[in-house]
UniProtKB/TrEMBL annotation:
This is ribonuclease P. Residues 178-323 form the PRORP domain. The keyword Metal-binding applies. Keywords: Hydrolase, Magnesium, Metal-binding, Nuclease, Repeat, tRNA processing, Zinc. It holds the Pfam family PRORP. It is an enzyme of class 3 (hydrolase). Its EC number is 3.1.26.5. GO terms for biological process: tRNA 5'-leader removal.
Length: 336
């Protein structure tokens, strides 16, 4: 009796229902080749939005397999371009799947455009829609574009999670290390955030360093501060000049600029112009003796007395009492 009921249910399935049932099976098993065959055998090349999303979902889930990766990307793009016509209204799932395919193809810009287009269809944005573009930019070392995605994500009220934050940390470290490998050698780093009480003071410090060493220093400043300086007409020209000369490095949003100038000063073994006592960093070290010695030998302090700048260079010799073990000094002038 049950067998007869099952046969009747199967007989009642319409072609559309049978198509959907087969598509669901392909989706559950992540069978890309079966999905492609199903689409090619369909009566109409135009799909409903729900069916299109299922096909794109299968494509995006096939990216991890090297054997199906290329065919998944090509099939997914062909489907999307065929349906992306005047009256087509994709939803968040459509755009997310396509963003993943675009990122897998190395087209981070297109993935970002797809993510931003969510607002055009009155769809609530989700982090998963932006993640492919961000991960793609981070993977290709395009730090500035990754930061742009990060800012856009924040602007729509979303927050990055651990995978995205980890990718950003890697690209930030990579871009900073690449910058320090540039052919320009810096004898001095200026902690601009600490110096920047006024544009004139910062400019005076940079010029004084150049006057004493005949080389321009590296000016490290947070991008947020750079943006505010560029908005000020009186300060814009100076920032643009430093940028053109390769003297200015803007630390990314969400980063502590202290770690950038500190890392650069240690790696390049150069002087550091700052009045920052760096107490936070001393407390975070397991052993602070070395750090105190390094500060003593490399930190350049500055003062402005009645508008006149004075740089205090590190002492030529250590100020700490030196202990010499097992030393013998013969003060006698006679040999007996």
């Amino acid at each position: 009796m049950n067998h007869q009921n099952t046969r009747r249910k199967k007989q009642k399935l319409t072609p559309e229902a049978q198509f959907r049932a087969t598509l669901d099976l392909c989706s559950r098993t992540k069978d890309l080749s079966a999905a492609v065959s199903l689409y090619e055998s369909s009566a109409s090349p135009t799909l409903t939005l729900n069916n299109l999303n299922s096909f794109l979902y299968i494509c995006s889930n096939s990216l991890s397999n090297p054997e199906t990766r290329d065919s998944a990307i090509n099939f997914g793009f062909n489907l999307f371009h065929h349906h992306n016509k005047e009256n087509f209204k994709p939803n968040e799932a459509t755009l997310t799947a396509m963003a993943r395919l675009a990122a897998a193809k190395g087209h981070g810009d297109y993935a970002f455009e797809l993510a931003k287009s969510v607002k055009n269809y009155a769809v609530a944005p989700k982090l998963r829609t932006y993640a492919p573009a961000l991960i793609c930019f981070c993977g290709s070392g395009e730090a500035d574009k990754a930061y742009e995605v990060e800012e856009h994500v924040k602007s729509v009220g979303l927050h990055l999670e651990e995978p995205e934050l980890a990718a950003l940390l890697k690209v930030r470290a990579f871009s900073w290390c690449e910058f320090l490998r540039s052919p320009i050698f810096y004898d001095c780093i200026v902690d601009s955030g600490y110096v920047l009480n006024s544009r004139e003071q910062l400019d005076d410090v940079v010029k004084e360093v150049h006057k004493s060493s005949k080389k321009w220093p590296l000016v490290v400043l947070h991008k947020k501060r750079i943006r505010s300086l560029l908005e000020d007409v009186s300060k814009r020209k100076l920032i643009e000049e430093w940028t053109d000369q390769g003297l200015l490095y803007g630390t990314p949003y969400g980063s502590n600029d202290d770690w950038y100038w500190l890392y650069a000063a240690v790696k390049l073994k150069c002087l550091l112009v700052t009045n920052d006592e760096m107490r936070d960093h001393i407390f975070e070290l397991l052993g602070s003796n070395f750090f105190f010695r390094w500060k003593e030998r490399h930190q350049v302090r500055y003062t402005f007395m009645k508008g006149n700048l004075k740089l205090t260079m590190p002492p030529s010799y250590s100020l700490v009492i030196q202990v010499v073990i097992c030393a013998f000094v013969n003060t006698s002038t006679e040999i007996r």
